Amino acid sequence: MVDFESIAPKNAAARNTVRSGAACDLDAQERRRQGVERAGRLREELGEGPVAGIEGRLAYRFAKRAFDVAFSAAVLVAFCWLFAIIAALIKADDPKAPVLFKQRRVGKGGETFQMYKFRSMCVDAEERLAELRELNEKTGPVFKMAEDPRVTRVGRWLRRLSLDELPQFINVLAGDMSTVGPRPALPAEVATYNDYQRQRLLVKPGLTCY
């Protein structure tokens, strides 16, 4: 049996968190060093020439956008009844709070847009984030906490089934996001990106977060 107290850091510079029986080092300097190394290896592999992406592949871009429009429109129409039920549950849980959560996110090329989600947290969730930073269970700029106290009763159920993400099909239909793509980042997160992490901004963010 692992004694986690014996492997806990003795200073504030390097702190650990325990998740699923494993100790994860969250030392910020080490993360930055690893990011710089990855960026250096990537530059060596790519060389000095321009990186060829999908911008010149018109057929691919057209097909991908056509799929996004058709799929998101179909979901919004076919599951409008589910949207109504979820909205009613959120209102029943907190009648004074809004149904949708709106937040500025960073899309392709660093352009910002307003992302929509069903509200799964208390209305003062953003203000309470600072007091929970030390409990972050993710490395890098992203905040993640398994038992986040800001999540509402209905929100916990929505998150378990990933139903809180459904309004993002509005963003897909509008062209701000794609069905498949990386997670849309917050401006504060992008501000801390290194060269390696900024590659995420070369494509549209997506619902799949991958």
TrEMBL record:
Domain Bacterial sugar transferase: 64-209
Swiss-Prot/TrEMBL keywords: Membrane, Transferase, Transmembrane, Transmembrane helix
UniProt GO molecular function: phosphotransferase activity, for other substituted phosphate groups
Residue ranges of the TM segments: 66-90
Family: Belongs to the bacterial sugar transferase family.
Protein's name according to its UniProt entry: Sugar transferase
